[in-house]
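[scheduler] slot 2 assigned
[scheduler] job type: sequence-to-structure, two independent chains
[scheduler] chain ordering preserved from manifest
[runner] begin chain α
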Amino acid sequence: MLSVAALLALLAGCATKPAKPVYTFFPPAPDEPHVQYLATISSDGDLGGGSKFADFITGRPKAQNPLIKPYGLALKDGQLFVCDTMRSAIEVFDLVKKRAHYFASGGEGAVKMPINITIDEDGMRYVADSVRGQVLIYKGDAFAAAIGKSGEMSPCDVALSSNRLYVADLKGHVVRVYNKSNFRPLFTIPADPKAATNKLYSPTNLALDSHGRLLVSDTGAFAVQVYDLDGCYQKTIGQQGVAPGLFARPKGIAVDREGLVYVVDAATQLVQIFNPDGKLLMFFGQPENSPQGALHLPAAVKLDYDNVRFFQNKVAPGYQCQYLILVTSQVGDHKVNIYGFVKKQ
């Protein structure tokens, strides 16, 4: 038998010259690029831990713990949390250790259908569980509390301010607002869900901006509804349609520090970016135009400024990545796509 050293030498002799990196930008040339596709994570095999040769020797499969049907996600301190609705668990991809594990508390804190996860600055985790009908709260991996009685609502997302929790309730057609310190209910948005004006049809995803606005992705209304933090209606972004600036099935939503609004459309399979006034600036992710960085039944979008370093080596020469854009796809091989909002240096 060949020794390990001889086999390594043989493999090295057969190695080919590395392919030149291909960078995918949105919008494509000749327009000035603003978004670059950086990477995808669908299993722990995408984290780069170990080597293909070690996998061959040990017989370990290339991909372990694959995502099946992800929805919400959060990135905190080098750990990517992804809600896998099919596995009834939350998978954690450790970008430092390059390993993955499941965060699925048992007993009273067991998750059944995690839709979205939001992590506070102090590390508290808030999970919207639509089957349990509650928001589950964890301090690290330890279960701490639950908001709502089982089956009382159908929570889809949680947004956090300094002293309040905002919960999108699909069943009640409202956003429920709670005191953050004691979880007591304060009010709903709108105050009267049966009112003829400024109502919510299917509130599914939430975002707060730096100007004190709550943005609600209202899938049933084919629009984004904008309120102040006390629930006063301000404006609507978009309407039903499949043209740019319109929505067919709006879902995930996020806002950057400059007020740019990112909205996922699961039907047209792209993410649209609007300015703070609701004017469409650009869109990206459409499968027919971008095999790399394509989205397939996208669900959630999150922005992150604190973990750019983990993907800095993917950024094209001459560009600076200002923040990460993470988008989940519920079908296809690329379950979590990571993009960068880039500018020329």
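[runner] end chain α
[runner] begin chain β
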Amino acid sequence: MTKHMQTHGNTWEIGGKTLTSRLLIGSALYPSPTNMEDAIRTSESQIVTVALRRQSAGNKTGGEFWSIIQSLGIEVLPNTAGCHSAKEAITTAKMAREIFGTHWIKLEVIGDQYNLQPDPFETVKAAEILIKDGFEVFPYTTDDLVVAKRLADVGCKIIMPWGSMIGSGKGLMNPDNLKTIREEFSDLKLVIDAGIGKPSHAAEAMELGYDGVLLNSAIALAHDPVKMANAFKYAVQSGRLAYEAGLMQKREFASASTPTIGTPFWHQFKD
């Protein structure tokens, strides 16, 4: 067993909550509110992210959205999507805490509007202030080990590095970096956030030993979001099972799966 392997059985813990699903799901971009609800229910996810700044609760559509989210009966993870400074993110987080009655916050502080890469300096700054204010911070970051260390230093118990750029669907651009982060932070909860485009990407992330996967676009923008949600549900489960079982190590040379030394087992049955 590697130093970071943890066996949770059918449950795991994050942010003080014990859950069974390791798939975290977004609530944006679906063709309709009904489609969103069906996909989330099918995924069996127990954590749904919502963007306070991008969803108006005051109009008819917003009211329907909030009603559906509440009816799901699962954990709500508000996020600070759309924020470009620590000050903006902190204000949004405090509003979300009042509206949802939760101290959880997915911290996003965007530094580049083109690739939506997070600003590491503002993210760490906001995380430190929010943690001191009693928040459980789920920070979105890149696969940079030093930034992850800074987030851990200010008290983050959860870190969410990207697989690749938000909405790109490219999967895990730097699996070696992600593996290093997993090995470095054996006591923290790590969730891959952003860039997951297909179920095999999610399975790969889980096979690296990550505790969960957060995604949105790959399900919401699929031709059949409900069916895709089902596919991701099983991909996350199978990836985690494979990790816990112990993956076969790569070899430089071929190794026959059937022994070639000695007498074939069927020889004993010959006359």
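[runner] end chain β
[qc] chain β: The radius of gyration is 21 Å.
[scheduler] slot 2 released
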